[in-house]
């Protein structure tokens, strides 16, 4: 079988880490595209020169021409500005919509059969725009946010309980904004509901307080990194998260990953991209997995969905 091809649109902070991770894992040949001349060429040359040390055997090419993404199996889009301290992700909609419009046209023309994973912010709106412009089926255009949001929630829980991050299973729903919904009731450590463990440690009242603080930190985790970096946003963990999605597609692993996917009635949402658990395999976003929400969780989901809907309504 011919080697798989991964096109990365945007050669900035996340794009560079994505290229390196694709190479280290030998997911396929990599093309890194950016409009800045020399940037993708320089980054990919640097990565390729590590091949003899790391022992990976794939091609890593930088380009300013969309023609080079032809035949890509997967396209991951990070083109767009990151926010600065004091900004919300939604503040990026105007500038990043213009960038996404040209990117989606490039993908449509040169990689019409690709599975597209959007990372650019504001995430839910940028995925929507990318799908509208490419016209690709909804199962072939998704967004990365939930893998990262859930990973952050899982990390905070593991640190709090003093257990391995590998044994925490956490899930978030909703849009990639301050109203996202970390689902405490469905979060567990080796199958044990997380609140049981927190209550054993602290008693019921303090456990609820500790969990509320972790939920709040998860919702603000992107902003926490932005405030520290001052000149950009998180890039290692978003890249790892998108690679998990790309790998599940390329290997047809059918991993269940929180994904920004197009809903057609699931969770009571119709005709909107929003974060939910999705089976990702060779068919792209193959299936949305549903779960029962209680009244409080549904109210949080409704609030998050409304925020996404209101923002998407402003897209030209
Ligand atoms: N979904 C998530 O979980 C998540 C996480 C972190 C960051 N982000 C978002 O991802 C985006 C990228 O973040 P970053 O840290 O890599 O930013 P960055 O500024 O380091 O890189 C962005 C790159 O996009 C390029 N670019 C601009 N216009 C372009 C165009 N028309 N075509 C192709 N490339 C173009 C720039 O030259 C730059 O190299 C931002 O919008 C950020 O908010 C999303
Ligand atoms: O917070 C940001 O602006 C970047 C990204 O969406 C994140 O969650 O890290």
TrEMBL record:
EC number(s) stated in the UniProt entry for this protein: 1.1.1.37
Which InterPro entries is this protein grouped with? L-lactate/malate_DH (IPR001557), Lactate/malate_DH_C (IPR022383), Lactate/malate_DH_N (IPR001236), Lactate_DH/Glyco_Ohase_4_C (IPR015955), Malate_DH_type3 (IPR011275), NAD(P)-bd_dom_sf (IPR036291)
Binding of substrate occurs at: 83, 89, 121, 152
Q: Which GO terms describe its molecular function?
A: L-lactate dehydrogenase (NAD+) activity; L-malate dehydrogenase (NAD+) activity
Question: What GO terms in the biological process aspect are recorded for it?
Answer: lactate metabolic process; tricarboxylic acid cycle
**All copies of domain Lactate/malate dehydrogenase C-terminal, residue ranges:** 148-310
Please tell me where NAD(+) binds in this chain.
Answer: 10-15, 34, 96, 119-121
Limits of the Lactate/malate dehydrogenase N-terminal domain: 5-143
Which residues act catalytically here? 176 (proton acceptor)
Swiss-Prot/TrEMBL keywords = NAD, Oxidoreductase, Tricarboxylic acid cycle
> Catalytic activity annotated for this protein?
(S)-malate + NAD(+) = oxaloacetate + NADH + H(+)
Q: Which CDD domains match?
A: LDH-like_MDH (cd01339)
**Transmembrane region(s):** none
Q: Does the keyword Ribosomal protein apply?
A: no
Q: Which Pfam families match?
A: Ldh_1_C, Ldh_1_N
Q: Which domain of life is it from?
A: Bacteria
**Is NAD given among the entry's keywords?**
yes
Family in the record = Belongs to the LDH/MDH superfamily. MDH type 3 family.
Role: Catalyzes the reversible oxidation of malate to oxaloacetate.
Q: What is this protein called?
A: Malate dehydrogenase
Species annotation: Anaeromyxobacter diazotrophicus
């Amino acid at each position: 079988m011919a080697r798989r091809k991964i096109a990365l649109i945007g050669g900035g902070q996340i794009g560079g880490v994505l290229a390196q991770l694709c190479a280290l894992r030998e997911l396929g040949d990599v093309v890194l595209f950016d409009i800045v001349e020399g940037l993708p060429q320089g980054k990919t040359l640097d990565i390729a020169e590590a091949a003899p040390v790391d022992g990976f055997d794939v091609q890593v090419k930088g380009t300013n021409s969309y023609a080079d993404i032809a035949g890509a199996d997967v396209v991951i889009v990070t083109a767009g500005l990151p926010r600065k301290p004091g900004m919300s992700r939604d503040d990026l909609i105007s500038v990043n919509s213009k960038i996404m419009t040209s990117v989606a046209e490039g993908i449509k023309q040169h990689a019409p059969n690709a599975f597209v994973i959007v990372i650019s912010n504001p995430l839910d709106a940028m995925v929507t725009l990318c799908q509208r412009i490419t016209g690709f089926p909804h199962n072939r255009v998704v967004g990365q946010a939930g893998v990262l949001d859930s990973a952050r929630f899982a990390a905070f829980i593991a640190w709090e309980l003093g257990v391995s991050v590998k044994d925490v299973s956490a899930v978030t729903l909703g849009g990639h904004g301050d109203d996202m919904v970390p689902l405490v009731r469905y979060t567990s450590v080796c199958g044990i509901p997380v609140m049981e463990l927190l209550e054993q440690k602290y008693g019921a009242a303090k456990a609820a307080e500790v969990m509320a603080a972790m939920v709040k930190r998860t919702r603000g985790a992107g902003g926490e990194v932005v405030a520290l970096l001052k000149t950009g946003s998180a890039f290692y963990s978003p890249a790892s998260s998108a690679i998990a999605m790309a790998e599940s597609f390329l290997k047809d692993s059918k991993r269940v990953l929180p994904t920004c996917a197009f809903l057609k009635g699931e969770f009571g949402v119709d005709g909107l991209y929003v974060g939910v658990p999705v089976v990702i395999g060779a068919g792209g976003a193959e299936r949305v997995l549903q779960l029962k929400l209680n009244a409080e969780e549904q109210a949080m989901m409704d609030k998050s969905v409304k925020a996404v809907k209101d923002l998407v309504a402003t897209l030209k």
